[in-house]
Every structure is written in C-alpha cells, then in structure tokens.
Amino acid sequence: MNSPTALQLPAPRMPLFGMPIYDLTWDSALSFVNELVALPIGQTHMAFINANNANVMMTDPDYRLALSRTLLLPDGIGVDIASRVLNGEKFLANLNGTDFVPAMLTYMEGPRRIGLIGGKPDVLKAAAENFRRHAPWHEFIEISDGFFDKADCAKILQDLEQARLDILLVAMGTPLQEIWIDRNIRPEHARLVLGVGALFDFISGRVPRAPGWMRRVRCEWVYRLWREPQRLWYRYVIGIPVFLAHVVRFKVLGPPAALDG
User: Fold this and answer.
1) Strand bridging mode 113-118 / 71-74
2) What pTM was computed for the model?
C-alpha cells in the first residue's frame, strides 16, 4: 500500500514466494474496501495475484517492487495449491478481480465516483455502460482508453485529479498496469486504485466468461485456453509447469538468495 491507513485488516496475511497475500473471506474483503474508500485521507493500491502474475513477479524486478507496495488478493486455484504446499492451508476465498469488482460495486451502497482507464476505446465505452447498468447509483467516468503514452501521461494525471475520484480501475494488463499505477498514481487521484487486467473485456461482453459450473470448480482457465489458444497457450501450457516448479523450489530450497529478506 502506498499510504498507511488507520484500518487494520480483519485477517492475517499468508506469504507466497516471499510476497504477503491477504487472506480474507468475501465478506471481510468487501467490508474492508468499503471502509478504505470512506477514509478521508490516504490511498490503497490493490491487485490480484494468480499463477501467471506470480511467474512474472519471479522474473520482473520492477513488477515485484510495485507489488511490494500493493495490497494483494488471491486469485485462482494455482495460488491455493501453492499456499497449501507452502503455508499448510489454502486461502479463505478466491477473490478474483472479475468477480470481486462487480461485487464491490454492488456492496457499496453510497454513491461513488469511479474512473476507468484501459482497453480499446469501444471496450472502454461498453464496459462503462454496463457498469452503469450494474450499479446505477455510482458515477462512472471514462478517463482514457489504454492507448496512451505511458511515459508521458501528464494529461491523464491532470484529468484524474480534476475528476475527484473515489475509485480508479486500471485495465492495462500485468505487469504494465501495476508498474504504471505505482509510478504515477497518487492520493489526489483516487482513494482506492485497482489493477483489473482483462475485466473491461469481460464486462463489455467482448470476451465471454466460462459457464457457471466451470467457474464453480475453478476451471475457467480451461475455457479461456479453449477460446483463445494462440494468445493463451504459453500462459497455461508453459506457465503452469513453471509455476509448479517455483512452488517445489520454495518448498525444498526456500527462496532464492535474490528474494531472501
């Protein structure tokens, strides 16, 4: 987290590959973010850690540094497996961003100003429209699509400050979104900032979600691989064995010297 808050998390953290992951139930997570947004000062960056993100974290020092200043929630069966092996227990809940963000918006009864950054222009527009249908008491502001100069974003930051947001959703994909947030977003831009990956694609309807039964058994990744094999084959076909190798290495040898401490 970039700024300390007066709130205490209602559940302990469990480490994963040397990074603390917050172990919360759905109710405690939703209650906590609702309180965060209501704070008069401070800012919290939040992200969701899954097996693919963990693989990236192990090889990208800039990404790892950004995550070290971010409140991380567990996403997917992969991190559950890793936690069971490394910590002796799985996480209390699967707090994936695709489900968590809409649930968060529903949970917050008071109206909030919510900014959106990322996606293609048509995806951003459609996502904002569907968010408005989902939670019409909130105000959704389309700040920018994802096609702007990340190294020269003064105009975006100025627009953010003028928008007076409570919440900012950034959908630019991992690791870009977390690094960009960490380097650029400050308390004057929003109280709560979330890196949400492909959320806008799902909310806009451009990318369909897996059937309910597949989501319940935590196999949505199989559906996504079937739908987009060329784009996702490396993430899953190669990435899953790599992730499991990291788990085994940490279990047997402990963290690499570069990550120790």
Assistant:
1) unpaired
2) 0.92
